[in-house]
Specification:
The structure is a homotetramer. Chain A is an all-alpha fold. Chain A folds into 2 domains: 51 residues, Homeodomain-like (Arc Repressor Mutant, subunit A), CATH 1.10.10.60; 143 residues, Tetracycline Repressor, domain 2 (Orthogonal Bundle), CATH 1.10.357. Helices cover 76% and strands 0% of the residues of chain A. Chain A is built from 10 helices and no strands. In chain A, helix 1 crosses helix 7, helix 2 crosses helix 3 and helix 6 packs antiparallel against helix 8. The first copy, chain A, is elongated. The termini of chain A are far apart. Chains A and B meet through helix 7, helix 8, helix 9 and helix 10 of A and helix 7, helix 8, helix 9 and helix 10 of B. Chain A binds a DNA duplex through helix 3.
Chain lengths: 197, 197, 197, 197
DNA sequence: AATGAATGAGAATTCATTCAT
DNA sequence: GATGAATGAATTCTCATTCAT
């Protein structure tokens, strides 16, 4: 009886453990030993699945951006008003955000890394670019349909992106004081009010 | 003859060198040696002015938030329309941002740190709170004066804070593509449009 | 039906693979994994046939000295002149050397080991001693028969041994420049000239 | 009062300690910690003077070949018979050998290394080549002066080189049984007899 | 018999910190 | 005040060996 191939399972197990450790301790302060313990494995085992600490970090980064944008693209062709579309998208984004929230410290580590390392920046850029494309398309639709004022589309899309991603920063400053999801929703609504005819 | 006390000068020299090194290399990757070299001093000397690496990091953090908000508070009592006040404030913020821009990588290191460490978070919270107070006050004035719609003041202020601080994130994703200062200005203007009667 | 005992075959297979790996990488740099791969087996399997890495190394050492000296001993009683005998022996030695040549790096590893470890030295000593005995006997025959000058037999035998084994060193220094077999033959001939009446 | 620069002293101290440790334990089995202890320093200190273990090994290799051949070259132009010259050279070589003898295990490590690594081989080649040049020149002088038979000069020089370097191998096999210096002298004398008219 | 997965002791290297001068 | 030399704890990564299947 051939043993089942555990490699995919282990890989995921290690990534999950690493994320958990990185969130708690920060990338810089997390030792391979910490990850091993979190995974319930030995140090050596991690190296059976990842060539180096760095490779593991990048594997996590990759798993981060694997997040689906499919529904968003799909939304573009739905037959409802643009404002409704955007409201739906906001709901999706906010729901997503609620899920990611616990990973915030790690997410910020990556952004800090991206500020210095081209390779990391490129990886983070991709989902951001995709996101921007969808938003730009939506806003253009709104302008075309007359729902929105005549706007600099890119500016508006960037403003929306800023409100979404930036809210994480604000939330970090004062997590007690701020209800992240509610605030994102409210901010985007304000912006929407500003651009709606 | 007592030698002149160079201690304040040296302290600043070291802080400046450390900031420079941290920006370039990241806090995690900067060794005391790097800072010493940047300062043109020896490693040992740093320890004459700072008890430890950590103390130096906190000293930098302190120096970061020493930024003055005086003009903002002063603005509150000036005798111009609220929209004008806010526009002025935006100009100040944007000008300030242009100055801080080169420090972005370090700033993000600190935020990532703040996401995990209460002590760091508390420090960063202070200027944010002050900023929020001014903005809330301004918006209240606007609502009172009838310039703005009847709004949830806190939500609006947070949205503005988000647009300002969050734009840094967006800019990190794609520094080529985004003109940071222009984008901040544009975003805030959009928001302002949304809340103005 | 009992399966055929493959253990002797596997043992040889592993030894051959280990020799090959050791030659290529050096004893110090060869991992059990390298040997396993070379043998087309798994690491675990090697331990079914050898208790430890060290035991495998000693098995190789043993296989090295298993080289037969039968012909040489036989030569002693042949009915030809001593000079002819020695020439024949030289031919045999040189032919042997041509075969061993590819193993040189490993052979040198063992000698370096022998310089430090009595246990290894004792193993390498055996074939050397046998060789010396044959040579001493031959030279004595030559002296007795009047073909050679009256010599310190041991000195001559050692000189011959030195020329044979030492040529490997010289060859390592400059393998392009030196034709190992030809050089061994020529050196021994020169020595033979020096001792012949 | 400026502190004296200890860097040259430390460098030599570490090289000496490393040689000592390598001789005892073998390059492969010597840990940086062993070297540090032998030098009476801490592990970290070694890295202040050598970038890596490998750099230290190469530094030792370099120090090995720094051995002077000046006297040999000088000998070429002395006004004595070639046989006398060679005898003098033999004395020098044998005296040198007596000094190096304790380093034999390490020397053999290097040769084993040279058998696999071009970079090491190149370094060891240099003194060998110089040595060969002197010997070739001497033998040519002998042929020209009629002291030696008409010979293949290179072959003879290589035979001499082989006897000198190779005797180390023989000696390793059986250090009790063999008087290294005496044997080298005797072997070379035999060879000399064989080439003298 | 064979193996692939797991282990953990051990090695090289780094770097914050100390301290004699 | 200043420094360069020294330290050693901590960290990443390797690899001989074990063992359940």
């Amino acid at each position: 009886m051939p043993r089942p191939d555990v490699s995919e399972e282990r890989t995921q197990q290690i990534i999950a453990a690493a994320i958990s450790a990185f969130v708690k301790l920060g990338i810089a302060n997390t030792r391979m030993e910490d990850i091993a313990q979190e995974a319930g494995l030995s140090k050596g085992t991690i190296y059976l699945y990842f060539k180096s600490r760095e490779e593991l970090i990048f594997a996590i980064l990759d798993s981060f951006i694997a997040r689906e944008l499919a529904y968003a693209t799909e939304l573009l062709t739905t037959d409802i008003s643009v404002v409704e579309k955007i409201n739906k998208l906001i709901d999706i984004v906010v729901a997503d955000m609620a899920q990611i929230k616990p990973l915030t410290p790690l997410y910020l580590d990556f952004i800090a890394l991206a500020a210095r390392e081209e390779s990391v920046r490129e990886i983070l850029q991709k989902p951001f670019d995709e996101f921007m494309e969808v938003f730009c398309a939506l806003i253009e639709q709104g302008v075309a349909s007359g729902e929105f004022r005549n706007l600099n589309v890119k500016e508006v899309a960037l403003a929306m992106g800023t409100l979404i991603d930036g809210s994480i920063l604000i939330w970090v400053y004062d997590p007690e004081f701020i209800d992240l999801e509610r605030q994102v929703k409210a901010s985007l609504q304000l912006l929407l009010d500003g651009i709606t005819v």
